[in-house]
Amino acid sequence: MVDALGYPVHFIITGGESADCTQAHALLKQCEQAVQDVIAEKGYDSNTVREGVMQQADEAIIPSKSNRKETIPHDKLLYAARHLVENTIGKLIHNRRLATRYDKTVSSFAAFVNLACIKMHLVN
After folding, report:
1. Is 55 exposed, middle or buried (0-12, 13-18, 19+ CB in 10 A)?
2. 124 pLDDT exceeds 80?
3. Beta bridge partners of 57
4. Closest by CA position to 122, among listed 84, 99, 91
5. What is the pLDDT of residue 115?
6. Helix pair angle (106-123, 83-92), 10° resolution
7. pLDDT per residue as tens digits for the range 18-58
8. pLDDT class for 110, splitting at 50, 70, 90?
9. Nearest to 42 by CA among 16, 17, 68, 18
10. Average pLDDT along the chain
11. Which residue ranges make up each domain of the chain?
12. Where are the alpha helices (H) located in 1-124, listed in sequence order?
């Protein structure tokens, strides 16, 4: 999860076989401040994710999947800000250790992700 400026705020490490959308509620619960808008990609388009987001945020800006019977409109201008997440991930994986996940344990990998996030905050 990144803030409005594209700085990492929270992260949860999951197994490679699990979907990212399963952690949407847990990430939102970690936010201490009020969340205005949640911008997510199509992979997060499910009724349970949308309901959870609407409990903690003002608006869920998630495009509908192509297989949804009734498409849910979203603000395309606000959705364009999702590139901040992609840019943050791109900056983080410049650290080869993150991109290839050399660490064997979750705790050591999480520690290095924390260091990379701190570096992003300090450098920018």
Report:
1. exposed
2. no
3. 35
4. 91
5. 92
6. 110
7. 888 888 888 888 887 778 888 998 988 988 888 888 888 88
8. very high
9. 68
10. 87
11. 20-123
12. 24-29, 47-56, 76-79, 83-92, 96-100, 106-123
Q: Which of 69, 40, 65, 68 is nearest to 54 (CA)?
A: 40
Question: Rounded to an integer, what is the distance from CA 39 to the centroid of its chain?
Answer: 9
* Tokens encoding 84: 């901040």
Closest CA to 89 of 51, 41, 42, 49: 41
**C-beta separation of 3 from 22 below 8 A:** no
pTM score, whole prediction: 0.78
Q: Which residue has the tokens 């949640």?
A: 38
3-state DSSP of 74-87: CCHHHHHHHHHHHH
Structure letter (DSSP) for residue 22:
G
Two tokens at 4?
């409005």
How much is the average pLDDT of 115-119?
92
- Phi/psi at 35 (5° precision): -100, 125
Token duo for residue 30? 């970690």
Do residues 58 and 37 touch, judged by C-beta distance below 8 A?
yes
pLDDT at 64: 92
